[in-house]
Write a structure and sequence with these properties.
The chain is mostly helical. It contains 16 helices and 4 strands. The longest helix is centred in the N-terminal third of the chain and has 26 residues, at about 1-25.
Length: about 350
């Protein structure tokens, strides 16, 4: 009888222990992926920047994003576009464990090309095809659900490329509005902007020293800014090419391992490629768009058309991008005047 009791106690203890082990195993994270540690001392740039310096740069950027998100309450969950993660614009490469949120007008052409290479497209095909690169990419990288994105973030390097909000906006304006292709949605939008705001622009000129107003077939930058302010007041969404990064990629809701800045683009790209083990598979490059670089002179030619009020209105639209990524508005305020008369030269350049 005593022997049977010992056996019963042993079986009961074994069952409890087995259940405990099973419960512990289920509670562990399913992903055991460890991001590779690449032993490199320098990133091969012109200045041979030490890897420690770039790592410190990345840590600083992530810290500033975290601080700004907390400061403005953007790290809290909510129902608007600022307070819930947006997985829609992410591309997930499962083979190479790389996650990217594609911000238009921030080296997006170059990295769409790289992601298409990583997806298996051949360089010759990418050079010949007339298919839009984003359409090609989405054939290989379907838009993820939030659950799929969170799973990928656990076992991948995630990165984002940011740019001064006003430089990015100007690049989008020149490409999609001023030089919009015929019979495209952006040309149609441009015509709508002219129809709504051109009359006010003409009245502006007529009331100031009788200066002649050059009547371009595209919306001027001031008219485009008035359009942006107007749709913001109406609560309408912005086009993806100039939507604020804070809403488009929701960096306060989704953690990024690497934050690349346009100002240090080549160096940061090389760092990303090396630490993610992709050296030899893709190259750090910037494919210069057909409209050319947005130089300081080009920026001044356009933003000097705006009044201080318009600069401040624009800043309000992109204020979180300025704060999260530490960009300044001061140079643009210097370009503008409180009562600026547009010249024919500044509009057409």
């Amino acid at each position: 009888m005593v022997h049977r009791l010992y056996i019963l106690i042993f079986l009961l203890a074994s069952t409890v222990l087995s259940l405990f082990i099973i419960e512990r195993s289920l509670s562990r994270p399913r992903h055991n992926f460890k991001k590779p540690i690449i032993k490199i001392k320098t990133v091969n740039t012109t200045g041979s920047t030490k890897i420690e310096e770039i790592e410190a740069r990345m840590a600083y950027r992530k810290l500033k994003v975290k601080e700004a998100c907390a400061k403005y309450g953007l790290d809290k969950e909510g129902n608007d576009s600022l307070h819930q993660p947006n997985p829609w614009e992410f591309l997930i490469n499962k083979k190479y464990h790389l996650v990217w949120c594609n911000i238009f007008k921030a080296a997006s052409t170059s990295w769409m090309y790289n992601f298409n290479l990583l997806a298996g497209y051949k360089p010759n095909f990418l050079k010949r095809t007339n298919i839009v690169p984003l359409q090609l990419a989405r054939r290989k990288y379907p838009r993820p659900s939030l659950k799929e994105l969170k799973t990928a973030l656990n076992n991948s390097y995630s990165f984002i490329i940011v740019r001064h909000p006003f430089e990015r906006l100007l690049s989008a304006y020149r490409d999609k509005i001023q030089y919009a292709l015929p019979n495209t949605p952006h040309q149609k939008l441009g015509n709508e902007i002219i129809s709504k705001f051109r009359e006010n622009t003409i009245k502006y000129f007529q009331g100031r020293r009788k200066q002649a107003f050059y009547n371009p077939r595209w919306p001027t930058l001031p008219e485009f800014v008035n359009y942006l302010v107007d749709i913001k007041k109406k609560g309408l969404p912005m086009d993806m090419h100039w939507a604020p990064i804070t809403e488009f990629c929701t960096p306060c809701q989704i953690h990024f391992d690497i934050i690349i800045k346009f100002e240090t683009l080549m160096e940061d790209q090389k760092y990303l490629i090396q630490v993610s083990g992709l050296k030899g598979k893709i190259k750090p490059e910037w494919k210069n768009p057909s409209k050319g670089r947005v130089t300081t002179e080009v920026v001044n030619n356009y933003y000097s058309q705006l009044t201080v009020k318009q600069i401040l209105q624009l800043y309000y639209l992109y204020r979180y991008d300025f704060e999260l990524f530490e960009y300044s508005i001061s140079d643009y305020l210097d370009m503008a005047k409180s009562d600026k008369v547009f010249s024919q030269t500044s509009i057409t350049e």
